[in-house]
Amino acid sequence: MDVGAFNDFLLTTEESLQVQVHRYLVGKISNGQLPPGTRLPASRRLAMDFKLSRNTVSIAIEQLKAEGFLRAEPGNGVFVNKDLPKNLVALAKENWHWSLESNGRRLPKLSYFGQQLDAQPAGDNRLNLPFTPGLPDLKAFPDRIWQKNQRQHQDRKLLQGYDGSQGYLPLRIALAEYLNISRGVRCEPEQIIITQGAQQAISLCALVLLNEGDSVFVESPGYRNAAKAFLARKAKLLPAAVDTKGLVVDDLPDKTTAKIIYTTPTHQYPLGGILPAAERIKLLDWAASRNIWIIEDDYDSEFHFHGKTIPAMQGMADQTPVLYIGSFSKTLFPALRLGFMVVPQQLAATFVLAKEYTGGESSLLAQAVTADFIVEGHFGRHLRKMRHLYEQKWDHLRSLLTLHLSGLATPIASSAGMHLVLNIAIEDDQILQQYFMAQGFGSTALSSYITAGNIPDETGKRKNKMSGLVLGFANTSEDERLKGVLILKEFLQSALKR
Amino acid sequence: MDVGAFNDFLLTTEESLQVQVHRYLVGKISNGQLPPGTRLPASRRLAMDFKLSRNTVSIAIEQLKAEGFLRAEPGNGVFVNKDLPKNLVALAKENWHWSLESNGRRLPKLSYFGQQLDAQPAGDNRLNLPFTPGLPDLKAFPDRIWQKNQRQHQDRKLLQGYDGSQGYLPLRIALAEYLNISRGVRCEPEQIIITQGAQQAISLCALVLLNEGDSVFVESPGYRNAAKAFLARKAKLLPAAVDTKGLVVDDLPDKTTAKIIYTTPTHQYPLGGILPAAERIKLLDWAASRNIWIIEDDYDSEFHFHGKTIPAMQGMADQTPVLYIGSFSKTLFPALRLGFMVVPQQLAATFVLAKEYTGGESSLLAQAVTADFIVEGHFGRHLRKMRHLYEQKWDHLRSLLTLHLSGLATPIASSAGMHLVLNIAIEDDQILQQYFMAQGFGSTALSSYITAGNIPDETGKRKNKMSGLVLGFANTSEDERLKGVLILKEFLQSALKR
Questions:
Q1: ∠ at Cα A291 (A449, B64), nearest 5°?
Q2: Contact B354 A139 (CB under 8 A)
Q3: What average pLDDT values come out for chain A (498 residues) when binned by 10 residues?
Q4: Interface confidence: ipTM more than 0.90
Q5: How far apart are CA B61 and CA B44, in angstroms?
Q6: What pTM was estimated for this model as a whole?
């Protein structure tokens, strides 16, 4: 044991010695070398044996008395407690070990959801590899400006204390204005709740809107982690079909007991379709007349350079049954861990409490720096710059695909922004993903995005058995794009020969 | 509308004008002034009317075509779409308003938990007032060192991308060593999960360990927000009695279907009792033999200067059924929003997934700075300094209470650390809290800490109808302590006269 290490932590060297004496004696009592009723040698004697000061030993003994291991008989000395609880003695005999194996003692059960997670393979590592979907181009981030803002805020004492679970007011004010102008969202700062990324926002919706066993429509293919958040409420997932224009509203059933429909209308994830305005109104009407909440995940709206962006559903009418969700993970950077949601005015307090009880406040420094970044115009400038940059990368990738993968893979035209979806007629796209990963590229198999069972293709209308790759090109260099495409070419050509 | 503001956001001035034209035309179509089938004036004509460039108007019209509001008939002009969906027309007639009042349309229902939250008064503002429980003395925080660490990390590109929901490995390594040495916790970094404060850790336990309707023992009086996190699983809360030595283990029933017992053994919240080692082992045995999880919230262990701290239950044996929870909100500062939990090895992956689906990663910068702060020894030094400082403040407050409030209020001796509990025989301590708040002091009424119904006092053994105040003295100055005590004196003396 490295006594020096104690100094780095809570204890002074003197205290660390006391702890060692304490542990030594507990060990002796536990393993029966000092059975109940034994008289302890005098502390002076022990101190000599230990080569320690008498004070050090005395303090350890006092602690053992306070804990009930030892008992003083005045004028007679200190004894190992005769009335040590039986279970302490039993445990002591087992040398303080409750072994899962040795005595059949097992850990208590998990919940239904816990067991589901337990059965699932561990999550991916979110490696920051080229072509990993969802990674922005961090090299183009204006670090200097961000760090200057951060330095200005970091010595503000007010940013160390408690602020409130709803989020930092200046950030909510800046966001309300930004969302109104750029996305047509109708909201006051009081309706905005700052979250730990979009994922917490979706999870809060599940908590506040779903009872256990309720049904939820999710786009399929769609955003898998949204589906997982609903499963935490034991939700029944109903697949909603998507095509190149996003969610197929006409396919939604006339009668349903579903409580929520989760959708990414501005840039369907992952296929990229933009839901037309008329379809948005149809969807609003479908949901409102059936008392169904719409979760509008405005994923990637900022980078949609392929066709004009349509305003958010949330703002298409007053009092829409819409929870609007966004994130700074892609527009700024993932590790910032800030997202936000806009909820109907009368539900704001309810959502704030739900956030308070499941995670509490969000990092104040991150919120303050982000607020300034927006208000000072850096956010808008950064988004414009990134849109152009991503469009150039997209153009380059598309030309590479045309040049090298014609006849082997087909890009889905609507997929723009930060990733491109490549349709590949291959039996098992997971193998392709693994092969690509082994070469250092982090794309995801398209089949992984099926969230809620396959759409039956008997009708022939929309075959949904998709295979291919989702290529996040935002974080790739020119060289990486070329190298990646050539690797795919080689793999697919040799797969064809077989 | 302030056109200039557009520049600060996503759009260039030119784009903002396009948006205004777009909105104007949607408005006309919506309110019926441009009914379906109407031919739109030529864009040249419109541009003259608007006093804008033709290009601006053309782009807005193209957008309306893409959205389905307008339709071009080649060689004939542009028309308002005759096939506008009926519901769009209907909505248009209502001037795009779904009014809750006007047509009886209501928002969909909330979940059971959502309705509970909805019925609850909004959460307190966590004002950073003197005597607000849970607030550390931020003035004594070593800002310079913290900020230096922060500057060293903030330009690391790696700290902007994705890292993983379990938490930053160097922080988990530092924590494992610290927790082992200072708290006797047995764990590897693989068992640690970094969370958004202790609250997220409790909430994850509820998610992974509780099915809906399961029972949970909570200390009463105890930590209210833990109880709330269990209620999100529709849990049945069972009160566990506490006395000046913490949880009364002997009072726990022999037979129970409870799945969890939530406890604060190192410093019972709020009364301050320290659970003796023998009682801890009894509790471990009680829980393990009944297949019950123990959530050990090691609240305030670092600042417990009143009697030696007893090692954590988690480490008293191998494979204890214990989820150990801690937080940096009090040892560093609340707005950092970092906490942690130690789970049994075989459950680590499950808890990481649960975190991924409900909130995802934690702020990387905050984690990296905290890791350095621990490893470089600043954490240990800061804790030692704060323990002395808080002890001085506690001594001062106690002497003031003896001097001014004898016979009016009784401090609970065990309550130390960062707050002191004052027993006051008063009918309604909420009124006292409100009065004190009106004078600028943020203490909390003791009766607020009853988490799960009152303990029946027929036995006379432990009357649990408590009234008084919880005074967070950590963030008070000498003057504030004196002023606060004198205000209490005045109030209580005049209350006595009545």
A1: 70
A2: no
A3: 33 60 75 83 84 83 80 88 63 38 63 88 71 91 90 80 90 92 88 96 96 96 94 94 93 96 93 87 91 92 66 84 94 92 94 93 92 92 90 94 94 84 92 93 92 56 72 95 96 83
A4: no
A5: 12
A6: 0.83
CA distances (Å), origin B104, targets A60, A153, A318, A375:
72, 47, 13, 39
Q: Contacts of residue B285 in chain A, CB cutoff 8 Å? A: 87, 91
Please name the residues in contact with A51: beta carbons below 8 A apart, sequence gap of 6 or more: none
DSSP conformation letters of B113-152: HHHHHHHSPPPP-----TB-TT---GGGS-HHHHHHHHHH
Chain A residue with minimum CA distance to B333 = A160
φ, ψ at B290 (rounded to 5°): -110, 10
**Residue entry with tokens 């999960």:** B193
Angstrom distances, CA of residue B417 to CA of A18, A405, B349, B473? 22, 67, 34, 9
Is A335 within 8 Å of B360 when comparing Cβ atoms?
no
Joined together, the tokens standing for residue A438 give 């082994």
Burial readout A322-360 (b: 16 or more C-beta within 10 A, e: otherwise):
bbbbbbbbbbbbbbbbbbbbbbbeebbbbbbbbbbbbbb
Contact list in B for residue A281 (CB cut-off 8 A) is 85, 87-88, 91
Asked if A110 lies within 8 A of B199 by C-beta distance, the reply is no
> Is residue A19 helix, strand or coil?
helix
Read off φ and ψ for residue B407, nearest 5 degrees.
85, -15
CA nearest neighbour of A485 among A387, A396, A366, A384: A396
Q: Are B287 and B294 in contact (CB under 8 A)?
A: yes
Bridge pairing between strands B444-445 and A236-243: unpaired
Contacts of the segment B350-353: beta carbons below 8 A, 24+ positions apart:
B350/A110, B350/A114, B350/A117, B350/A118, B350/B208, B351/B193, B351/B204, B351/B208, B352/A122, B352/A123, B352/B164, B352/B165, B352/B166, B352/B193, B353/A117, B353/A120, B353/A122, B353/A123, B353/A228, B353/B165
CB atoms within 10 A of CB A9: 23
Residues A483, A414: Cα–Cα separation, whole Å: 24
Integer Cα distance of A189 and A360 in angstroms: 18
Report the alpha-carbon distance of residue B429 to residue B124 in Å, rounded: 17
